[in-house]
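Handout, section B. The chain below has 567 residues.
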Amino acid sequence: MEQNEFKELFQDYAGISRLLKLYSYQDIVSAVSKAASVSFEAMENYFAIGYPDGRLNSTYRFVLEDLLQNVEHYDWLYDKLADDRSRMTFTRLIQFRLVPDSVFIEESCDEENRQCFDHPLVNCDELIGNKNHIRDDSPKLAVCTCRSISDMWEIPKLIDHINPNYRFYLHHYRSIQNHETVLYAIPADQDNKKVEIYRPQKRIVAMAPYERGWSNVELIKDCGLIPYLLHKNHGHDVSMVGADNGPYPYHDKYTKEVTMEFLPNGQIIEKLRYLEKHAQEIDGLLLRGCYPTNFPVAEVYRTLNPEGRIYVGLDANSWWMDRILWSEKEFIDFMDRCDVIATSCHSMQKHLNEKWPWKIEYIPNGYYGFKGHQEEPAFQEKENIILNVGRLGTEQKATEVLLEAFAKIADKVPGWRLHLAGSVEDRFQTYIKEYFLRYPELSERVCFIGAITDREKLSEEYRTDKIFALTSTLEGGTPNVIAEALHAGCAIAVTKIDAFEDATDYGRCGRSAQIGDVDGFAEILYQLCTDEDLEQLSRHAYEYSRTDFDMEKIVARVNELLFGGNI
């Protein structure tokens, strides 16, 4: 394992989970020992501070072996934790177990007087002895989880088995004598009334980067979902500001809790006038792209509100980023003013962190179901369909590569069809007519199903199909359709561009071909259509979406980066 890959995976719990599933004990100890500049043997026998002799034998290897053997249990607990602070605490503790650096422990500590639970709390050292009480009376519980290495997951699993009506919170305290990790279990029906969690409401503005303002479809993409979930899940007062580019049916149906504030027009002067009036009351400013039009916006906001926080999501690929003259003063000043700079794929994060002096965060474009969590689709109910979603016929999407690739393999996979969803460019209509003249036998197997604006209908299309294919030549960040397809359990066929670096999870849920290579793309489609393990690829795609592309977890990370979490 390369050090860069280890560092990337180590940044958050989703990455750590992947690290534990992808690599062996030897690989991880080697990576950690290199990062710590100690020998493999010294790392393996590193004294694990905080665990009593006789329980853990005081060696690093027992910590790592527990993580490797029980990573699914740790995944379960992470998903069960009820707030951002608990998930942050959990992540820091796991980071400390992998790399025993005290900085992670210090970052996870709460002061005693900042406990967010009313008193007295029931302290349970022997859960089994209190089984009936826990099951029948649902008392609030505070349980120390640092007596044994497996306590962190075994105890909440036991509580959940006895009484599944509990919500879990995790806090880590530093006392004079020791460190204590405490699991709080609060009955769900008492959660709102009995748990006092300090959630300071922030005023957040997402400023449109274009003169046209926000488009309707952007409301359900990352640029709209981040503001929406910062309001819905974190209680912030959020507005999306820009010129009126309506109508906005998605706002009425999905994101009406977010305020749409319309400027007289989308010119820079109107944005600056808005900030002159409101900057001091705005705690966080969300920007898209390091465009020159954003430079004066950041400057005015920072001047009027030095304590305010600026988040910029880069619409980035290496071709665009390498064209930027980042040594120019205006660009440097803009980047220096931004508190959080994020890109949506690991390759771009790595590329920019090596190229630029600013820290670049990984914030992927994820999946969010407005109708609630969707269970894993049944592979047996899926059909032999390859799906493409996007603006059909644009130079960027290179739809003709997909069509020609399918034509090359159609005879070899007679039971498969190709569905293309999206608006068709006028210039592409001529190509489509010519395509069916060349391949009349495909008229019943290649279907242009039009643009699907109904999100539920589109979701069903994803869940029905087995493979999702994109032949793009360029993307400004990872498209949301990738996360949507993964969540629907679609195996992925894509081109080798920056934005798709994470799409296949290193081949575990799909394949990739060179840009514009019809024969190469035909080959990966054929491989997927005939793969005996296609069901396993589908299952991994869904699991991958849940761990790495869950929009609620992603926005929780954004909130933590901007404001330090909720508590």
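Note. The longest helix spans residues 84-98. Compare this with the example in section A.
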